[in-house]
Inverse folding.
């Protein structure tokens, strides 16, 4: 004969497993560690600073043009 299974416990076990797999999916999709967030922030600030340093302003344009 087969093993007797408590259906309530089996349902709860299945619900817990589904919740755990959903949590793991959400962690992979949205979760980042504090260090990862800080690293991304530093890299973004560095890229913005580099872009600003390479930008030529319109006020600088007069000193380099040959319109005179």
């Amino acid at each position: 004969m087969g093993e007797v299974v408590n259906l309530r416990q089996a349902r709860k076990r299945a619900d817990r497993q589904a919740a755990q797999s959903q949590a793991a999916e959400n962690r992979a999709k949205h979760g980042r560690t504090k260090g990862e967030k800080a690293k991304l922030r530093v890299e973004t600030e560095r890229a913005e600073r580099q872009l600003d340093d390479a930008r030529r302003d319109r006020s600088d344009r007069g000193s380099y043009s040959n319109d005179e």
Notes: The chain has a mean pLDDT of 87. The radius of gyration is 29 Å. The helical segments are 7-30, 34-54, 58-64.
